[in-house]
Design brief:
This protein is mainly beta. The strands form 2 sheets. Strands 2, 4, 5, 6, 9, 10 and 11 form a 7-stranded mixed sheet that branches. The protein has a 4-stranded antiparallel sheet with strand order 1-3-8-7, with no helix packed on it. The protein is globular, with a radius of gyration of 13 Å. About 30% of the residues are buried. The mean pLDDT is about 95.
C-alpha cells in the first residue's frame, strides 16, 4: 500500500518561505520520479517541480529561481523549498510519485500566501 505523509504547508506573508516535505512508503522510492503539483480553486492541477530518479529537475516557469525541489532517497522523502512566495502561489500542493506513467498522489497540503 502506497502512502504519503505531506507536511509543511500553512499561511505565510508575501515574500516569505515554506518548505514542504513528503515522506513515502510502500514504493521503492529511489526508482520513482517525484513531483510537486498544485491546484488553485477553479484551476487545473499543474506541475510545479519534478525531480527524476536520475536527479534531473524541471520547474514551472513562474517558480524558477524561487522554488527548489530535492530528494533524500535514504529517507524516502521529497522536499519543495519555496522562497519569495507570492499570493498567486496559493493552492493545495500535492506530492506525486510516477513510474511508467503510473502515478501515486499524496493527500495535499494547503499553502496560503496572504498579508
Amino acid at each position: 500500500q502506497v502512502q504519503f505523509v505531506e507536511s509543511g504547508g500553512g499561511l505565510v506573508q508575501p515574500g516569505g518561505s515554506l518548505r514542504l516535505s513528503c515522506a513515502a512508503s510502500g514504493i521503492v522510492f529511489s526508482i520513482y520520479n517525484m513531483g510537486w503539483y498544485r491546484q488553485a480553486p477553479g484551476k487545473q492541477r499543474e506541475l510545479v517541480a519534478l525531480i527524476s530518479s536520475e536527479w534531473s529537475t524541471k520547474y514551472l516557469d513562474s517558480v524558477k529561481g524561487r522554488f527548489t525541489i530535492s530528494r533524500d532517497n535514504a529517507k524516502n522523502t521529497v522536499y519543495l523549498q519555496m522562497n519569495s512566495l507570492k499570493p498567486e502561489d496559493t493552492a493545495v500542493y500535492y506530492c506525486d510519485a510516477e513510474r511508467a506513467s503510473i502515478h501515486y498522489w499524496g493527500q495535499g497540503t494547503q499553502v496560503t500566501v496572504s498579508s
